[in-house]
Each structure stands twice: as structure tokens, then as C-alpha cells.
Predict the structure.
Amino acid sequence: MYLNFFKRLIDFIISVVGFFLLSPVFFVLIFCLSVVNQGKPLFFQPRPGKNGKIFKVIKFKTMNDQMDCHGNLLSDAERLTPLGSFVRKTSLDEIPQLLNVIKGDMSLIGPRPLLVQYLSLYSSKQARRHDVRPGITGWAQVNGRNAISWQQKFDYDVWYVDNISFLLDLKILFLTVKKVFVREGISADGHATIEPFKGNG
């Protein structure tokens, strides 16, 4: 009952209220990031959702579009702006995803939506992370976020899928608030975000 009805209802109510309360911050960041990123404060990227259905995730644009002399984008670390770094460290870049939750593409709690190109690289067990809506935060995020290995991340995601409950979601929500204040696990060692997933070898 919780998974099939109440989880979605709670997601919708909290997201609407949360976006309303955070709207002043949202519009301030829209303005500031528009200045920093040449009029592009947001970016929309295809991500797989529940059952692998593709949707466009909405996030604040924390990296510029600078390229090298060959026309290739510079590394994440080189393109991450000072303002973008602050937005990421404070997790403010997640605010626009409340709109994805309101639309029904995402949940507040669930496995993070990863890149579309990873779909063909998952094992059958790893692919089970798509049995539920992806989340703004999740069990993997409160247990290391980007600082843990891909295998650990997927193990946490699948464990969550098998153990979803209201109390577990509540626990993840409180742990997420704690992580935001402590600023743990924002990036992997040697990377501005996380090393790309290359499959299971």
C-alpha cells in the first residue's frame, strides 16, 4: 500500500510545499547561474526512470561549456565553476528535481537516476534499481554518495528496492539532511564528481 499509493502522495505533497518554500533560493540561483553560464542556469539531461523509461532530469547547471582547441569539452574539474562547486557542495543543485517529483518522473527517495548509456552495462541484478522511481536521494547517497564504488552503490540500490518502507524512507530523509550539513561524499577521489561506470568487466 505504501509503495503503490502513499509514497507517491507523500512525494507530491512534500515536493509542492518544498518548492514553494525554496522558490526564493531557486530564483536567486537562476539569476546568478544565468550570469555565470551565459544565460543557461539549468540543464536537462535524459535519464532512465522506472522500468527504464527515459525522462529529462532538471538540474542547475554547475559546469560551463568550455572546450579545448579540438572542440572537445574540458574535464568536469576544469568546467566546474566556483559558484557551481558551492551549489553542489550544499546540494542546492537538487532543488529543480522537485519539479521532476511533482511531474511523477522521480520520487524523493530512490536510486539516483544515472546516465542512459549505462543501461546496457548493468547486470540483471543491477538493473533492478529501475523497478522503482529514481530518487533525489537514496540509500546509496546516505551511505557514501559518490565516494563509494559502483558495486557498493548498486548493492545499496537493490537492497533499497527490496526493503522499501515508510520508516526506511524517513530514515534516509533524516540522514540526507545530516549529510548535506556535513558535506560528505560529494565526489570520488581524484574526480570532481564520480568516475564513469564502465560495466562489470
The two ends are 39 Å apart (CA to CA).
